[in-house]
Amino acid sequence: MQRELLSRKAACNAHGQDSSYFLGWQEYENDPYDPISNPKGMIQMGLAENQLCFDLIETWLEKHPQAGGFKRDDGKRIFKELALFQDYHGLPAFKNALAKYMAEVRGNGVRFDPSKLVLTAGATSANEILMFCLAEPGEAFLVPTPYYPGFDRDLKWRTGVEIVPVLCSSSNGFRITRAALDAACRRAQERRLRVKGVLVTNPSNPLGTALACGEIDALLDFVSSRDDLHLVSDEIYAGAAPEGFVSVAEVAAASASTAGRVHIVCSLSKDLGLPGFRVGAIYSEDEGVVSAATKMSSFGLVSSQTQYLLAALLGDGEFTGRYIAENQRRLRERRRRLVQGLEAMGIGCLEGGAGLFCWVDMRHLLRSTTFEAEMELWKKIVYQVRLNISPGSSCHCDEPGWFRICFANTSEETLEIALDRLKIFIDSYQSSDTKGHNTSREFIKWVSHFSSSEFKSER
Amino acid sequence: MQRELLSRKAACNAHGQDSSYFLGWQEYENDPYDPISNPKGMIQMGLAENQLCFDLIETWLEKHPQAGGFKRDDGKRIFKELALFQDYHGLPAFKNALAKYMAEVRGNGVRFDPSKLVLTAGATSANEILMFCLAEPGEAFLVPTPYYPGFDRDLKWRTGVEIVPVLCSSSNGFRITRAALDAACRRAQERRLRVKGVLVTNPSNPLGTALACGEIDALLDFVSSRDDLHLVSDEIYAGAAPEGFVSVAEVAAASASTAGRVHIVCSLSKDLGLPGFRVGAIYSEDEGVVSAATKMSSFGLVSSQTQYLLAALLGDGEFTGRYIAENQRRLRERRRRLVQGLEAMGIGCLEGGAGLFCWVDMRHLLRSTTFEAEMELWKKIVYQVRLNISPGSSCHCDEPGWFRICFANTSEETLEIALDRLKIFIDSYQSSDTKGHNTSREFIKWVSHFSSSEFKSER
């Protein structure tokens, strides 16, 4: 009955929010860790948020109060102008500054023309808009696994586009190969789906790796094998990439055979830690895509108030240069600490050095090589250790036993506590393997230590 | 070839932007009127923008500088908290204030529960989301004519939903009747379209009228005639309604037979003149709609920076009370001046007293009762008189000779100049009707007067 009244989209759960990825978040929200008031609470390591450099932005804001208010540098009021500004081409000052920043974050190896940039209310919307522009309902995009769980919502839900996974495996460090792309194409054919392109994340979420040049070449080679294929590179973690990062935009600029069929998605949510401001963008060399996407951006424009603030922030070259370098340094340091802490427990991570997370190998901790065993371990980590991490299965990983752990959304002290908790759990878990299932009792005993106020320093 | 590479949505022009409604805007943008620098330029009367009360908001901002910045009243920084806030349920303080404001603007005849409110990046997105939630591609919504030209984009383009017009005519002041709704249903049947509901604008854009109680009753009666029909009431002009305005929400609250099938769309773009801030909302009593729409709002969330500012503004009851009254007073005064000026030229308006525009009857000025004649007159007004007004045909009006003229997006002085220009044109146009087509030369002679700087006072 309800199904008849509402659309199938509204009534179904194709938005993917029932996955363990989001369930872990809910668990966190019900009982969030706080060093003073809730030291036994859940620590959120399932959220790819960058909280490491707010002090830099706050210092800048102190020095530039007019950017947050509604006055120009010369004191002239700008409220009315901003309140009325709803041109879907965006504030020119902001687009210019964003294009410059996008180049800078990519080591200035490629330039971006502001007129080929479409502003969107976050990358969520940018990816959906590209699907609306590039594929019909019932056509497919290939997406390498493991992939961001939100893509099931962003790419498929309202567009009717299908995702065909490109199965990547640990045997080659989850690298994308031409053979894997071709195999995905064959599976699409079996499902009678016309493939319209590939969508990758670079750096990869959840792998925490940047695409190697060989992978980009394989992707462009694949796309140029037919004249109706596209490559979408979601580069929202470009600011969290290791030195030597190569944007797909850079390689594509030199490839005539795929001209106009490579589209880049950007965002300020991860690099600058501003998800609340809803700033994303599509960059495309195809005029038709830019034109249609610009019109579609009407469904999610960026607030002019926010554009004005960010035009000033990103327009300050002295600030962006310092921010990019310092942000990378802090992320590197934090990542190093997580990797080191896990190593001390005998847990390895995929080598990558990108993103706000590590792709963590816990295969040796599974009772069996199954996704049931992965969920069993995940539930223990969530419900007993009180750490929200993301199981690989929620990212459509093909192999059980991998987990994504985020490291940039908490303080260093909280990370240390999370590592301590995990270590005690792992020790107990492994010993219970031989001695029997006494994990829970052990863990409860341990967690009761954390009721004091010894972590005051954190906030 | 291009059609193959991109989707049909991207390649087609179903977004409706090629209509005369938007063409007039382009013409304005190429040659915008300015009293000093471009006194012969185009005057924009095709834009339903409210510029009459910015002084009230600016004064409030002067007194509350922390709302625009990133500090609380107590001086505590709030930048980080806002930067990270991306919960699609919205800032509680903002939703509470918005719900309160929505009730106040409707004379407190109905209350709104913040938990049934979904924030969207403008009403554009709110309307599209409702279509995604309520209908399948290929199903239809009935929309009374004349209607906002943007609906062809907002309701149809990406959703695949069809619009079936409910033909309203001047014979009863373009009122919606049960007979007209039933006739539209029959036409939908002929097109083999399943009807899923009716979407109205209240107050109406472009009519400038509020729905009469009889019309709301007819609509609810129609919707309750089947158990799978919905009523969407787009009330983005509620703040520009005459005294005694009745929201569909108010009547629906008392109607058990349509419970959960009436959905209200709101926005701050027109009432507060803030289109650049992208704030819209859906209000629904149906849990399934609220839940699905909330998830869909991920594709266009409202910037947290903007939510924070508006929570403070709308949370100030002293301000909202004064603003609502003063805004209505100024709109009334401005509307009165336009109606009076047109009357002096022998041009009538539909009685309404709502919205930021009048629905103007120029049927007597057409060379013939055809849409070709309407376009001929419109082109003269755009290209010779240099006024951008919207022809009824762009609003899917069923009768040639009606035009929408906006009055709240310019200064009073500019309105007077527009009226002066129009009067000279009408006099000349009507006399040329008997003496021959000498309009253009007369008009060019006249417009050359406006090269002096006599309008300095305007800016």
From TrEMBL, chains A, B:
Cofactor dependency: pyridoxal 5'-phosphate
Alphabetical UniProt keywords: Lyase, Pyridoxal phosphate, S-adenosyl-L-methionine
A Pfam family this chain is assigned to: Aminotran_1_2
GO molecular function list: lyase activity; pyridoxal phosphate binding; transaminase activity
Biological process, per Gene Ontology: amino acid metabolic process
CDD domains: AAT_like (cd00609)
Residue span, Aminotransferase class I/classII large domain: 43-422
PROSITE patterns: AA_TRANSFER_CLASS_1 (PS00105)
InterPro entries with a match to the protein in the record: Aminotransferase_I/II_large (IPR004839), Ethylene_sulfur-biosynth (IPR050478), NHTrfase_class1_PyrdxlP-BS (IPR004838)
Transmembrane parts of this sequence: none
Family, as annotated: Belongs to the class-I pyridoxal-phosphate-dependent aminotransferase family.
Matches recorded under PANTHER family: 1-AMINOCYCLOPROPANE-1-CARBOXYLATE SYNTHASE 9, BIFUNCTIONAL ASPARTATE AMINOTRANSFERASE AND GLUTAMATE/ASPARTATE-PREPHENATE AMINOTRANSFERASE-RELATED
Protein name: Aminotransferase class I/classII large domain-containing protein
Organism: Zingiber officinale (Ginger)
